[in-house]
Specification:
mainly beta; single chain
Length: about 120
């Protein structure tokens, strides 16, 4: 059974930092895409950062220069270092792991972790 679990959320003052971590277990193969989204429960999630299997990254314009996405393939974890946090970064952050390999396609989401930035 596949499990995707986020951790590291919490309450922080504006200008502070948080590090989110996403751990996966039960995956049949390493993901080709590892991403962080944010939003409200039950609503469309907005893409924050993506890390591809070739180590290319993409960031939403609103977080460029402040957030960094990294991964540990051996541990099947993906982290999001968030610096210089702003109140508008407040959201539930979700981890998304996908494989586009034709042999084992999958698309898994975590349950989300709340990040609250106070002004």
């Amino acid at each position: 059974q596949v499990q995707v679990v986020e951790s590291g959320g919490g309450l922080v003052q504006a200008g502070g930092s948080l590090r989110l971590s996403c751990a996966a277990s039960g995956l049949i193969a390493s993901p080709t895409v590892m991403a962080w989204y944010r939003g409200a429960p039950g609503k469309q999630h907005d893409l924050v950062a993506v890390l591809f299997s070739g180590d290319a990254t993409t960031y939403d314009e609103s977080v460029k220069g402040r957030f960094i996405i990294t991964r540990d393939n051996a541990k099947n974890t993906v982290d999001l270092q968030m610096n210089s946090l702003k109140p508008e970064d407040t959201a539930v952050y979700y981890c998304n792991l996908r494989s586009h390999d034709s042999r084992w396609k999958y698309d898994y989401w975590g349950q989300g972790t709340q990040v609250t930035v106070s002004s």
